[in-house]
Amino acid sequence: QVQLVESGGGLVHAGGSLGVSCVVSGTIYSINDMGWYRQAPGKQRELVATITTRGSINYADSVKGRFTISRDNAKNTLYLQMNDLKPEDTAVYYCAAELRRYYYSSWSNYWGQGTQVTVSS
Predict the structure, then answer these.
(1) What is the pLDDT of residues 77-121, one digit of tens each?
(2) CA nearest 52: which of 70, 74, 79, 38?
């Protein structure tokens, strides 16, 4: 069994900062790409940022210069530091990871349960 557990969401005023993290646990052989996605009420889930095992990073244009994604491969943990938050950043933030559970397994995508981030104006 594999679990992705996010933590660190909450309520913050516009212009403030917040950090969220995601721990991947369970029977895991290898983790490939990891990423953060978000879904606002009435909208589709969208990519926020992704990071490869070697540290190559991709950001959505809407968060470039304000958000920083990072990972600790030794701890199977993904981070997202969010600065200069705006009301439009309000959403449920989901962690995702592409991983193999065993050496013979194929790559599969796993998702966390999400953590709410609310930015007040």
Answers:
(1) 999 999 999 999 999 999 999 999 999 999 999 999 999 999 999
(2) 70
